[in-house]
Amino acid sequence: MELCSTNITLTNLVSVDERLVYTPHPENPEKTVLTQEAIITVKGVSLSSYLESLMANTISSNARKGWDAIEWIIQNSESALS
User: Which residues form the PRELI/MSF1 domain (predicted)?
Assistant: First the structure.
């Protein structure tokens, strides 16, 4: 499964194109591999490379939170069905 998103607010200042790809684990069919990438472009700001780096770090740290949330939902939905 592939998910793609693009911000629609503040596009005149910054654009973030994100892509998430979920694939079966090559060795364990019970697991899933997530590949996440984001392209960040800051426009019209003198410190654009600094801001791009700052946003990349924030996205990276939030990626783990998102994965933890998905795991929590799966675990709780499995226990609700049991």
Answer: 1-82
